[in-house]
């Protein structure tokens, strides 16, 4: 009798686990349907179109297989696309360190205990809420995104005269949009603040007893503990900077090529996949390099 009772209990437990699993899958169904219809299907269809010449006729869309012709045209014939891609890469490589370091500096200041701390946190996060396309367009139209000292002290002339041409243009672009770039630091500041909250006060108290200075505590405690959050902010900033239409001529070029008669959706899809591949490879490089510098909790 005892083995039979034990088997029934085990059977009952498994049935309850199965019921819980089924209920979990039921809740996942709407998300999976949305993922398939609005993400996976458009991605697969755009990849298919990138190897086709797409024409619109009275009977609908007509496809003519072109193989790698769209991709070779992007690299070998369309000089504007390659130049725009190189420029956005240079601009992004300059912008990412500025945003990551600025947000780290501000987060450390906002993590200190002082009166009105929550108000200052809200002020730094407000641009994330207000930085819509229309707001940024108005800022650009009023020339409010640049620094006044650039014209006052002729910094543009100094950079052009002393920096190689390859880097002078992206540096001046970043300086002219410096205020707007700092607007995109709100989420990164919030992530750093969350990371700073994970560091226990007992660690700082023990280091103070041992005679450590604030500078030593930053390099030995704070910075190593924040390396996973620094990596997260770098990846987030890469994706964010590569997906801002107002700061990115490549996205506007892809959209405009959709309506060009001899290019159309096929070539625009190929450009989109090239652009995605560049961003994906850049993220993979960052993740590969991070293995040497990122320290996770519990690791020695």
TrEMBL record:
Q: Which residues form the signal peptide?
A: none
Q: Name one GO cellular component term.
A: plasma membrane
Q: What protein am I looking at?
A: Sugar ABC transporter permease
- Supply the source organism's classification: Bacteria, Bacillati, Bacillota, Bacilli, Bacillales
Q: Enumerate the transmembrane spans.
A: 21-45, 81-110, 122-140, 171-196, 217-239, 272-290
Q: Which GO terms describe its biological process?
A: transmembrane transport
* Residues in ABC transmembrane type-1 domain copies: 89-286
Question: Is Transmembrane tagged as a keyword?
Answer: yes
